[in-house]
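Workshop exercise sheet. Pairs work together: one partner reads the sequence aloud, the other fills in the structure field after running the prediction. Swap roles for the next sheet.
Pair: D.N. / O.F.
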Amino acid sequence: MSAVVAACQTYQPAQLTRLPDLLSEVTALTISPSDLPLPELSTHPFDQSRPLDMDEVAMIAVVNNPGLKAMRDQVGVAEAQAFAARLLPNPQFSFACGALISGVGATTSSVSATLGEDIVPLLTRSARRRATSANERSVRLNLLWQEWQIVSQARTLFTRAVELERQRAVIDQYRKLFNDRYQRSNIAMQVRQRSANGSLSTGVRCSSC
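Structure field:
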């Protein structure tokens, strides 16, 4: 007689998405400022009812960036590895019972039990914990560095766009001013030319008389 403990695990494939899961509408974004990397962003409210400012544009760039989304998945993998490294190895227990059926001199049934433990994972557990913790910290710092760069680039592009819009307004004003001057000069030149042609015609008539 023996006792066996078994577990069952099933596999079911999941369909992969063929399109990126990036949102094209700002109104569909859900942003939690407390999850953002920089302190000034974590305390800045995200209000879609008014025009976006520089910090809100940086928030959108951080939340909806495909590269940062992939790096956040890597952080999740590193966290899982660090958690697995802290777990103790499972002991193995086996039990067997041999029933007495027949035989000369046999008076009792045989019973045996075995408890086993792999000590190698126990010996390397501390080193594995340090390694996975260092890897998790490295992945988190890399993500933070990339997020900081995205925020800096978004702010730079926002400032450049605002400045170019101001320059465009000034250029439009100058273009309107120069166009008005050109129209006035053109009208004045036409008037002067008609006056000159009229004086020339009068002079020719007088000389003919």
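Discussion prompt: Residues 1-7 have pLDDT under 50 and may be disordered. What would you look at next?
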